[in-house]
Amino acid sequence: MQTLGRIFRAGAGVVLGVAALMFASVAAQGRGAAPQAPAAPAPPPTGKAGAPIDLTGNWVSVITEDWRWRMITPPKGDYASLPINMDAKKAADAWDPAKDEAAGDACKAYGAPGLMRLPMRLRISWQDDTTMKMEADAGTQTRLFHFGDWKAPGGAPTIQGDTTASWETGARGRGGNQPPPMFGNLKTVTKNLRPGYLRKNGVPYSDKTTLTEYWDLMRQPEGEPWIVITTVVEDPTYLGRSWITSLNFKKEANGSKWDPSPCSAR
Amino acid sequence: MGPVAVLGKVAMHTRRTAALAALALTLAGSGAASAQALQAAAALQGTAVDFSGTWANRLHEDWIERAPGPHIGDYTGLPINDEARAVADAYQVSMQNMPERQCILYTTQYIVMGPQNLRIQQELDPISGAVIAFHMSGTVDRATHDIWMDGRPRPSPNAPHSAGGFATGKWEGRMLTVTTTHLKSGLVWRNGVPHSDQATMVEHYVRHENMLTVTMILTDPIYWEEPFIRSATFELDGNTRVLPEPCEPQVEIPRSPGEVPHYLPGANPYLAEFPKLFNLPAEAARGGAKTTYPEYGKALRSTYRAPDKCTVYCCGGTTLTVMNNNQGACRSDDPPPASPASPPAAPPARRE
Prior knowledge:
The structure holds 2 protein chains of 2 kinds. Chain A is of the alpha+beta class. Chain A has helices spanning 2-32, 67-70, 86-93, 97-102, 112-115, and strands at 57-61, 121-128, 131-136, 141-146, 162-168, 185-191, 196-199, 203-205, 210-218, 226-234, 243-252. In chain A, the strands form 2 sheets. Chain A has a 9-stranded mixed beta barrel. A two-stranded antiparallel ribbon of chain A has the order 7-8. In chain A, strand 2 (121-128) and strand 3 (131-136) form a beta hairpin. The termini of chain A are far apart. Chain B is an alpha+beta fold. Helix content of chain B is 21%, strand content 19%. Chain B contains 9 helices and 11 strands. The radius of gyration of chain B is 24 Å and the shape is globular. The N and C termini of chain B lie far apart (69 Å).
């Protein structure tokens, strides 16, 4: 213990010295420069320039989970595993796809909270420096993820809603000249959604729904990379608590299997 | 060499990484230096995110497989080959109550992909504070998942295999990536779908706020046509119980010595029940890699007709035990209470 104590004391002494040097260095910089107003630190890069991971490309959902609820439309009333309340059950029990078709609502299962669980291919690209575009061939849908200080335009709810996006990179230095970190994830928050279905058999979500997604890129030592999206659906109208799932998309070499199809209510 | 690097080296020499880094931060006080020093300290200490705690399994997906258990002959979504189908078709779950099999552990993949909650503990070097290992445990019949973070070498391929296997972890930013080998053969699903002792499991652990998402990619040259990917999300919950349940074998069903419950090839009488229940073609129920891609679903949906109504697990719910019929009143304690606009909930039904 005495030896350890000596080592610690010696180490602490060196640390104190180094810290003092750091202070001295900062102070010297301040004295040597001409007096001027301190420059505001540049914000860290966002959007395309700040991307710590590359999510662009072609991706396919591999349906290895909840196959019977995702690959086919389950029977009416099959809402197991969803934390829905009695209002949602009533609505799901009243599901009528013919009525949806007649009302021009065949896309109700293709809104963002339901869309992402459907079997499909994704095409992700940058629409511009601050807008990421996610296209889905199922239902031929497009979602836009807006970075920076984008403000939703408001107006009537839409099937894909309004999505704000940001990179989560953990600790990093300040300033705009640093290269993007190598690791991190995308966080998207979607609101202003038109009511739709969480599951194709009519399990509803309301226009008060918030969809939060965390997009992680999993690189593999062998094989293709995967996107895994941790998904949280919150809906005070139809959910008793947040619905938490995770989704998997495998990278494909190209878009040769891209096969857009219209919405189907059935 | 910058001041932060100097600090790091000093800290390593003194083996007081965390204490010295914290001291340096207090003294330095600069925002940028603080962030860099934090990263350096985390790297030295060997951890980027602390996953310690008790994590609740919400069962919001994979509920059938994880909670009540899959139907006999339900291999949907599993990229298995004919070898795996043959093993699963022959499986009789009553094999599990043979005294010599009652305490065989589920392999470690079932800790995170099984039905119950998760406890994660860090094992720290008592002097440096570096993370030596993460230890994960579930509740019932699961091998402890020990993830070594200290760089120890992987054993020879000929070393003994165990239910827990041998797992090493490394940080990729804030993601923990774990590779597990040396597993004994075991069950992936409780209806007999197997993995072999040549399986390799890669897991990715990421934490977002109070959620932990675990993605598991199982590769198995014996039983799986393609890597099998699953993911599950847990919530940090200090009220969650993860208690061990010791196993004590005893005779539950008297049997002749050497009798092992099983079905001979082609003799399992229950395989047709699952596809019939959901109007599925038999081929879809048999799984296989091609059945997991969107184009398979598109072709299937062009002819598929769902049953007119739900006939099993129709009360909804997300817990381990729900009623398996649609005949009586559903439980009212799950899902949670109805919204204010709803009429009062029905009285709770008696559990079966």
